[in-house]
Design a protein that fits this description.
Blueprint lengths: L7 E3 H8 L5 H4 L4 E5 L5 H13 L8 H20 L4 H4 L4 H17 L1 E4 L2 E6 L2 E2 L4 E7 L2 E9 L3 E3 L35 E5 L10 E4 L6 E4 L1 H12 L6 E5 L11 H10 L4 E2 L7 H4 L36 H22 L10 H17 L11
Parallel strand pairs: 1-2, 9-12, 9-13
Antiparallel strand pairs: 2-6, 3-4, 4-5, 6-7, 7-8, 10-11
Helix pairs in contact: 4-6, 10-11
Length: 378
Amino acid sequence: MTDGYVWILSDGITYPLNLMGTSLVGSLKGLINIKPYVPRSRMLDNFTLCWLGKSSKDVNVDVYGLWAYDATIALAMAIEKVGYMNNNFKKMNSSRNSVSLGSYLHRVLSSIRFNGLSGDFYIINGQLKSPSFEIVNGIGDREKVIGFSTTKHGIVRELNSTEKISVADIIWPGESTCVPKGWVKPTNSKKLKIGIPVKEGYNDFVNIIRDPSTNSIRVTEFCVDVFEAEMAALPYDVPFEYIPFAKPDESAAGSCDELVYEVFLGNFDAIVGDITIRVNRSLFVDFTLPFTESGINMIVLVKDKKAKNAWVFLKPLTWDLWVTSFCFFIFIGFVIWILEHGINEDFNGTLPQQLGTSFWFSFSTMIFAQRAGGEQLE
């Protein structure tokens, strides 16, 4: 590990390596290790002593083992609250009761909160509460805690403070206190070879312009502008050059599939252009996320399945509305018959005549426009 580099590892990588008996973080000078923070407590110390006394090997329990232990305790507490050992629950054999019991147990488990071996233990939305992380710096044969990462205050020097970490406190690889610069400007002349598809016709995505006097090329248009904007946003310099995928007569040297395969063969490092994402091409290269719509439309034949018959007039209204209108039609006719039966001769006679007159009058008031002038029914 030399200067100019930064090594950051999670506890999931460093802990298995530490099982060999030596501290990996301490042996690799300048390494930064990020691991879940477990607060020291008397309960944790007693558990560790008991574990080492019963274990055949001198192996400490990692944070995942502590979480598993606390999860087992939380499950036992939830079962006690539910009352699983009662006779009522022993008699529940149906699948419906089992599902109900499981849902109730889940709710009770979500309400359990206690101070366990790993610290404050409780579940939020079915997930264990996000722990704080401890940031450790390897210095010689020992480890130095340089800060903590919390969801509330971010990266801080102390757990319950808002003071940020100073990079001057970190020993970087090579026993250097200077912050590595990261990517530096390359000193060699090797450049990325960017393949450019040669297409005839629509050139708004990629356009190749050749200067006949100098025989140099200039690549412009939308895809090139996006690529150059992304390269300019990088915090380091990446030299590149555009190479058209063309024959000596400036015609296309092959299809887009062949151009993609050239990247797989190593003849190009990347492609800039309007290359459609397809399954066969994805087997050889990785595509960026689409940053524009393809603009492809499909014209398909639509078969009109609407029935063309005499009952087509029923389509504008739903069946519920038709039934409601029919009920109102009957109701209005009945009300008119009650009001006119005793004083109007047109509403007398046989039963069919009375029904016909009532329903016809109801139908006429709903369908036909009423005549103006205050004319009354004679």
